[in-house]
Amino acid sequence: MKKIVKIFAVVAILFSFSFVAQAQNPVKIGHIDFNALLATMPGIDSVKIKLQNYQKTLSDQMDAMKAEFENKYLDYQSQASGMSDLIKQTKEKELSDLQARIDAFQQKANQDLQAKQQELVAPFIETAKNAIKEIAKEHKYTYILNAIEDVVIYKEDSDDVLPLVKKKLNIQ
């Protein structure tokens, strides 16, 4: 919700400036589905494969940790009746610590996966943004908006610059 409010504020400010400048230059607005552009860029498929492999590695490690926990828990359950209180407490503490390590690993794995995605996708985003800027300058656009759902709530007719950017990047 805050994101939408910020977008509306930015758009309102931009439009107020555009009214002043409108006497000199007409406002020309275009839009692009940035995600659709990224999905068609050459090399993005290899990024998806790298991310899937990285995710599988993390998932395999998580599965191994969970299996270790299950084995220790089943062992504890089967022997609990014959254990002294001190051994029970020690085993319970061990299980608790292992569960905490699993939770910490899962959180860290999610963060690492997101960081890896950003690292691998960043060059594609930069290339796409540069192409969009070049198209904006070449075709004299004042603004080019990302036309993904829920960001642009309403728009008057504007030019879809996706075909121009794809041509600029030699994408079919």
Quick structural summary:
This protein is mostly helical and 172 residues long. It contains five helices and three strands.
User: What is the chain-wise order of helices and strands?
Assistant: HEHHHEEH
Tally of DSSP helical segments: 5
Rg (CA only)? 26 Å
Terminal CA distance reads 36 Å
Total count of strands: 3
What is the approximate shape? elongated
Structure description:
The protein is mainly α. The protein has one domain. The chain has five helices and three strands. The protein has helices at 2-22, 34-40, 44-79, 85-138, 162-168; strands at 29-32, 143-146, 159-160. Strands 2-1-3 form a three-stranded parallel β-sheet. Helix 3 (44-79) packs antiparallel against helix 4. The longest helix is centred in the middle third of the chain and has 54 residues, at 85-138. It is elongated, with a radius of gyration of 26 Å. 8% of the residues are buried. The model has no long low-confidence stretch (mean pLDDT 85).
Q: How is this fold's topology laid out?
A:
Layout: H1 2-22, E1 29-32, H2 34-40, H3 44-79, H4 85-138, E2 143-146, E3 159-160, H5 162-168
Parallel strand pairs: 1-2, 1-3
Helix pairs in contact: 3-4
